[in-house]
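G., the chain you wanted modeled:
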Amino acid sequence: MIKILLSGANGRMGRAITNLVAQTADAEILCGVDINTESANGFPVYADFASVPSRPDVVIDFSNPANFEKLMDYAESEKLPVVVATTGLSKEQKERLHEAAASIPVFFSANMSLGVNLICELAKKATRFLGENFDIEIVERHHNQKLDAPSGTALAIADAINEELSGGGRYVYDRHSVRKKRESNEIGIHAIRGGTIVGDHTVIFAGDNEIIELHHHASSREVFATGAVKAGLFMAGRKPGFYDMTDLINES
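Predicted structure as tokens:
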């Protein structure tokens, strides 16, 4: 039985993961960490990592970037595998993930959906085939409570595309003040916030007289919870190193 420490236990994603783990035979949530310490799901929830009395097998984090340093301090001090699913991490925070991977197992993905990660791979292949003959735009839509914009997933898709362009793509986030024609190396990234949209991402390849679109629609947070739990089970007992969704998919 794999024992999980759930960081962000009382958030929306924390509750989704809790429901999913309850249906998983080989895993259980040992405890949670959250600023809201209500224990309504059958396990204790602590205000900080220092209060956690027992050692888990893996930490799954779906909280807030403000919690990142404390999370990593705890994981590194206890030599624990950690699954970081929190979005909106800074460049410095992402660099720390790679540094920590020298001593502990670290799993990070900008999006825990298997379908979104497939979209990244398809976008790379489309970019490789279409080359510089198509303009590329990314549109992401999320609920009105989401704090970061553009989403980490949109940036991950852009990074995947830019990898195929040998780093020659230029990210453009807002054109309202731009009074010039679109440059061929632009990768447009647009954020929409409204209602209760769980998460939509569209990649548009616009060429002469034709448009190709890749689209992923998440109708429930359960798709992200499924990926996070699978990552947690995958990471328990791993050797130190940096892991991502590609490693999980290849081993599935």
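Residues 114-130 form the longest helix (17 residues).

Shout if anything looks off.
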